[in-house]
Amino acid sequence: MMNYEAMSRAKAEELRKKDRVRILALETSCDETAAAVIENGRVILSNVVFSQIDLHELYGGVVPEIASRAHMEACDRVIDQALREAGMTLAETDALAVTKGPGLVGALLTGVNCMKGLAFAAGKPLVGVNHIEGHVSANYLSHPDLEPPFLCLVVSGGHSHLVEVTDYGEYRLLGQTADDAAGEAFDKAARVLGLPYPGGPRMDALAEEGNPEAFTLPKPKTAGKYDYSFSGLKTAFINTVHGLEQRKEPLPKADLAASFRRAVCGELMGKAEALLKDSGRKEAFAMAGGVSANRELRRMAGEMCRKLGVRLYMPEIPLCTDNGAMIGSAAYYRLMRGETAALNMNAEPALRLCEQGITYE
Ligand code: KG4
Ligand code: ZN
């Protein structure tokens, strides 16, 4: 009998010649249990997201053990629903995909083990996907014309990267945060204003009502020209709020949120603009990750790209935050390169997208 790995490689080779390749993908790296069926890396046949926000809200953030348990309970249901909505059975899919990292180890392991079991039982190739690559790939779903090369700002709860996508599955890291990620900074600032978890979207909504020039926050200093740092900004924000509280002044929450949002987005876009100018890469600029749903960031990116004559690509709002569709898209391009996972695939909580690339300085 052919072993699983040999069978998987042979099937993956066959799939490279097939017109329609449909992948069932599962995402469980943090607090969303999500499954999707994606055709040829570009077309969403179904996309089911089960959010655990209600479970974690009470604690003001994601509790890893609760997340793992909830993934375990939801996996089967979410996968069944994704197959049902795509009008398919497991046997009719061509391959399976799962996020292998980065993320919470217990949460990742739940998904990895679930999909390893299904892949073995159904005799399907399995692809292990980098979550950050998934975020970048959400753009392939929203924009059928987008192809590498392009520059991309990846901004999520755990990452703030400027990368060059040189080809499908190939990246050069050009800038990154020295401390907090942009989403993390939004979440922490939101907590200081007493907004419930997850704070990012709530800060964004509140900021729409406020004056972004009401408070001046310091401009972050970084070692690299395209690197980020948000911890100083966060501390300055906390000090501003505490100062108001100590003076028993009412908190102008909307103005505070608007000023903080302006500072973070200005920083994100400032470095992106410097990189676009220095690199001479004028084809396309893309954004990805939860924070790319931010209204001010989307407006600023629009203005910057108009000014520079660069084509702007952003995922539709529901595809900015964690979902299974983006994992299915990234998996397709990996599969076409013949990359399949063995049954000893492990979760990799600290998985990186790529090593540091060249700089243009
Ligand atoms: O990409 P994502 O869903 O998960 C990670 O991979 O981390 O990103 C979640 C992060 C959270 O920090 C959340 O507060 C932030 O993205 N976020 C936002 C917005 N929507 C989500 N931050 C600012 N404005 C938003 N509209
Ligand atoms: Zn994410």
Spell out the blueprint of helices and strands.
Elements: H1 4-15, E1 22-27, E2 32-39, E3 43-51, H2 53-57, H3 64-86, E4 95-101, H4 105-122, E5 126-130, H5 131-142, E6 150-155, E7 160-167, E8 170-176, H6 182-192, H7 199-207, H8 231-246, H9 253-279, E9 284-288, H10 295-308, E10 311-313, H11 317-320, H12 325-336
Parallel strand pairs: 1-4, 4-5, 6-9, 9-10
Antiparallel strand pairs: 1-2, 2-3, 6-7, 7-8
This protein binds 5'-O-[(R)-(carboxyoxy)(hydroxy)phosphoryl]adenosine and zinc ion.
Residues 30, 135, 156-158, 183-184, 186-187, 198-201, 204, 289-291, 293-294, 321-322 line the site of 5'-O-[(R)-(carboxyoxy)(hydroxy)phosphoryl]adenosine.
Structure description:
The protein starts with a helix and ends in a 25-residue tail after the last helix. The chain is globular. The chain contains twelve helices and ten strands. The strands form two sheets. Strands 3-2-1-4-5 form a five-stranded mixed β-sheet, sandwiched between helices. A hairpin with a 4-residue loop joins strand 6 (150-155) and strand 7 (160-167). It has helices at residues 4-15, 53-57, 64-86, 105-122, 131-142, 182-192, 199-207, 231-246, 253-279, 295-308, 317-320, 325-336, and strands at 22-27, 32-39, 43-51, 95-101, 126-130, 150-155, 160-167, 170-176, 284-288, 311-313. Helix 6 packs parallel to helix 8 (231-246). With 361 residues, the chain is an alpha/beta fold. It binds 5'-O-[(R)-(carboxyoxy)(hydroxy)phosphoryl]adenosine (KG4) and zinc ion. Residues 30, 135, 156-158, 183-184, 186-187, 198-201, 204, 289-291, 293-294, 321-322 line the site of 5'-O-[(R)-(carboxyoxy)(hydroxy)phosphoryl]adenosine. The site of 5'-O-[(R)-(carboxyoxy)(hydroxy)phosphoryl]adenosine has 21 residues, from helix 6 and helix 7.
